[in-house]
Amino acid sequence: MNKFKEFLKRKDIEISGKRYGIDALGAMAQGLFASLLIGTIIATLGEQLGIAILVTIGGYAKAATGPAMAVAIGYALHCPPLVLFSLVAVGAAANTLGGAGGPLAVLIITILTAECGKAVSKETKIDIIVTPFVTIVIGSLLSMLLAPAIGKAASSVGAAIMWATELQPFFMGIIISVIVGIALTLPISSAAICAALSLTGLAGGAALAGCCANMVGFAVLSFRENKWGGLFAQGIGTSMLQMGNIVRNPRIWLPAILTSAITGPIATCVFKLQMNGAAVASGMGTCGLVGQIGVYTGWINDIAAGTKAGITGFDWLGLILISFLLPGVLAWLFGAFFRKIGWIKENDLKLDL
Predict the structure, then answer these.
(1) Which tens digits make up the pLDDT trace of 214-235?
(2) Which of 59, 57, 88, 60 lies closest to 72 in space, CA to CA?
(3) Distance of alpha carbon 246 from alpha carbon 253, whole angstroms
(4) Please, what sign has the CA dihedral across residues 12, 105, 30, 250?
């Protein structure tokens, strides 16, 4: 047993929730952003501006989604170069065979494959053949065996969530908004979760509301301490910056959480806000305005499919209120109350920017 532990340590194989549930998942979200998300944004710009070359470029980026996620995960797992590069093929296989649940299939299969590749890396004199051979063959076999089932399971869970949201938009709007908003601020990836579950439609709209409530909420709530730098860092960047302060005083999270519990059902019941763009955008909030671009892309897709007549003023009003105005106003009001009763004190939200 000691020898096995020494082997794992030598190979930097760390079987832990942090390594797989935080590091790998967070890296996967970056891979998604650097392929599917940015590709969608580029293609959308091309379509709206009538620039065909941008549409083509966006298509290339989206086609690299599986490999990009796999390489990002491998990087987070500290894979040696030959293992890392071989994961390109594994990501392509897992994402393709995983269907709508491709991101989750890529996550699970890449983790298993990467650790196998690391185990054999540099153990033979013909490493340049053995390592990529083992990595690609194991990853491809796992993809053929597991990816379809993983994809089907993820799609089923996502479909159940979306069905429940259609059935009970008020209660599910609250639940999804709060949970996904919390996931966005925690050191895990709300974007990867939404992508893995293919969370779109009304459920995607609720998820977007929760993310915006946390990002814009913390940006406005902490303006007193962090000024304009903090406003943009959290409002366009990520509310995860507040995690250290949340650990010190969990009460500072209440304004954002309460805000998400309000804006979620408003999004689903009042504005019928749907995310019919890329599912990953449901978990992005206002980060680079990806969430809002995703909603807009969904509108365009729906119009093209004939399920939506056009984009109305009410659509824009809902998107602006849910994304920016309501999170800012509500979080500020809740924050003022909690500051008054002493639950939030001066500099509790201060960031080292």
Answers:
(1) 999 999 999 999 999 989 889 9
(2) 88
(3) 7
(4) negative
CB 170 within 8 A of CB 264: no
How far apart (Å, rounded) are the C-alpha atoms in residues 340 and 134? 61
Q: Can you give the length of the chain in residues?
A: 353
User: DSSP letter string over 213-272?
Assistant: HHHHHHHHHTHHHHHHHHHHIIIII-GGGGHHHHHH-GGGGHHHHHHHHHHHHIIIIIS-
Structure tokens at 8: 């794992």
| Cα 135 from Cα 82, distance rounded (Å) | 9
- Sole residue written with tokens 């990806």: 290
Backbone angles phi, psi at 275, to 5 degrees: -100, 95
List the one residue out of 189, 185, 242, 188 whose CA is nearest residue 210.
185
Bridge partners (DSSP) listed for residue 201: 275
Q: Which residues 6+ apart lie within 8 Å of 15 measured at CB?
A: 8
Nearest CA to 269 out of 225, 221, 231, 318 is that of 318
Cross-strand pairs, 275? 201
Domain positions in the chain are 2-154, 168-340
Q: Are 177 and 263 in contact (CB under 8 A)?
A: yes
Distances (CA, A) of 249 to 138, 219, 252: 46, 17, 6
| 333's tokens | 């009001």
pLDDT, tens only, 153-172: 887 888 888 898 989 999 99
Identify the helix (H) or strand (E) that includes residue 99: none
Q: pTM for the whole thing?
A: 0.75
Question: Where do the H-state alpha helices sit in the chain?
Answer: 2-10, 17, 25-32, 38-49, 52-63, 65-76, 81-98, 102-120, 127-167, 169-185, 190-196, 201-221, 223-232, 243-248, 254-265, 290-305, 313-320, 326-340
Quote the radius of gyration of the chain (alpha carbons, Å). 21
